[in-house]
Each structure stands twice: as C-alpha cells, then as structure tokens.
Specification:
Two copies of one chain form a homodimer. The first copy, chain A, has five helices and two strands. Chain A is mostly helical and 121 residues long. Chain A has a domain of 69 residues: Orthogonal Bundle (Arc Repressor Mutant, subunit A), CATH 1.10.10. A two-stranded antiparallel sheet of chain A has the order 1-2. In chain A, a hairpin with an 8-residue loop joins strand 1 and strand 2. The longest helix of chain A has 28 residues. In chain A, 27% of the residues are buried. Chains A and B meet through helix 1, helix 2 and helix 5 of A and helix 1, helix 2 and helix 5 of B. Chain B binds a DNA duplex (30 and 30 nucleotides) through helix 4.
Chain lengths: 121, 121
DNA sequence: GTTATATTCAACCAACGAGTTGACTACGGA
DNA sequence: TCCGTAGTCAACTCGTTGGTTGAATATAAC
C-alpha cells in the first residue's frame, strides 16, 4: 500500500467493476447496498472496491445515519489526463519531427551503421 | 488474461516502472536492453513489462537484426481520455445541476424523507 | 562453424488482489 | 431494550503479477 497517487488511480480504474461503479456514481451518489445491487458479488466485496476507489481519491464517503453515501470526486481525473496528455503530445511531436527529418533527408531511411543508440535523433 | 482493452491499458499504466518506460519511449524508440539499463531489474523482467505494454496496445515492437526496437503507440491513450472525460464531464454537470437546485430551492438541504433512492434527481 | 549479443521462454516463488464467510459495530424504529 | 438494516473488519482461499534463474532462439561477427 501507500503507492504513488498515479499508480493508485490507474490500478483503481483497471478493474471493470470499479469503472462501472464510477460510471454509476457519475449519475449520482449512492449507498454501498445500492452499488452492490447490480452485481453478483457480496456487499463486502463492493465495500472493498470502494475502499480502493477511496484510497485513490476517486470517491469520498460521508455519514448519514447508518448509511455511507458514496460521492464521486472528479478532480483526481485531472492527474491522469495530465500524465496521459503529456506523453501523448510528446510522442506526437516526436513523430512530427521524424516526419520532417525524413522529408528533408530521405536517405535517412537507409540502414544506418549505428543503430545502437536508437532513434533519439 | 484477454481482459477488455480499457482494463489492459489502465492496469498496464498502474505500474510506475511501466509508466516510466512509456515516458522514456515518448522521447524515442529504444531496445529492450536500453530500456532495462536505468533499472535494477533483469532484462527478462523488462521484457515482461514490455509484453504487458504491448498487449495493452501501448507499444509495438519491430525487428531490426537481433534487436527489437520498441515504439510507443500514442493512439491508445485516446481510449482512456475518452472514458475519463466522459465521466468527469458527467460528474461536473451533475454538480452544476445540484448547484442550481440548491439555489432555487434552499430547503432541499433539509433531511429528505426518502434518501433511499440516492441523489439521481 | 563457433562465439558473442539481444531477446524470449519456462519454471519457480513471494506478494498481492478479488472474492468468500463469519463476526462485529452503528443506527433507527418497534 | 431488542430487532432489523447498513456497513466494516478479520481470516481465509485462489488466481494473478512481478520478480528471479537457467535454457533456448535468432542474428551478427569472427
């Protein structure tokens, strides 16, 4: 436990059941029992899933009599999108640069004598 | 194995080492040995990580003599961002609607007699 | 043909994750 | 006060995962 935030969010959403719960919670807050209803698993299993989502910061739980309404925290999504966008943009930019390079010097496609260093340009 | 694409991508990126490799590959293609260099793990372990990334569609591997240059496939990121954006937008919209509701009828904050159905309104 | 390099495959192990059952706590209501 | 409902905690099982070592494959270099 106590992994980095990004790992927590990614692995929390790696489970289809948990993604499903997030989808359900996007519609509106729900109790543990309500969340458990659609699935064939026990309420304890759902409780565990919610703990994972909570540890990842994706949901919060308040207290309302004996119920614990679960609320989706959309902010954490930003963490992921930022990470993803960063590397996607980087990869796309690199692709564009490679494209430019190939356009200006077409002989670069020929087998280079020093492929050991990779394609860092 | 053979899980849904979204689960594969999310769980592939749930590992910090693999995210690190993606970051490295965003800079440029690399061989397995090059990718293994910064880490204290064996090259076999890195090979396994690459298989996970490949199964998720995040990287592709070509053949170049005895080397297998690894290339980042940025397209798959879209799958994730689409999923994330969908529910983030949904949650934000719900929040806005709830905000409107509370503005128009402030007595809605009072304990309602039917909290069982949640806040789907 | 043999050797060195790059990578993967196979078998194994420890740790983890998702599920279970059973016992427990916390309320609200009769 | 006792019962029913909502939820969590603890202990256990079982499959998966990340790591290892050792052998195998593919190719280049000698």
């Amino acid at each position: 436990m106590a992994a980095d935030p990004l790992s927590l969010v990614f692995s929390a959403l790696a489970d289809p059941t948990r993604r499903d719960m997030v989808a359900r919670l996007a519609v509106g807050d729900a109790t543990v029992n309500e969340l458990a209803a659609p699935y064939h698993v026990t309420v304890q299993a759902v409780s565990k899933h919610l703990k994972v989502l909570e540890d990842a910061g994706l949901v919060s739980r308040s207290r309302e009599a004996q119920r614990r309404p679960v609320h989706l925290e959309a902010k954490v999504f930003d963490l992921m999108t930022k990470w993803i966008e960063r590397y996607r943009r980087q990869a796309e930019e690199r692709y564009r640069r490679l494209d430019d390079l190939l356009r200006t010097m077409p002989e670069a496609i020929e087998p280079t004598p020093t492929p050991k260093t990779g394609a860092q340009t």
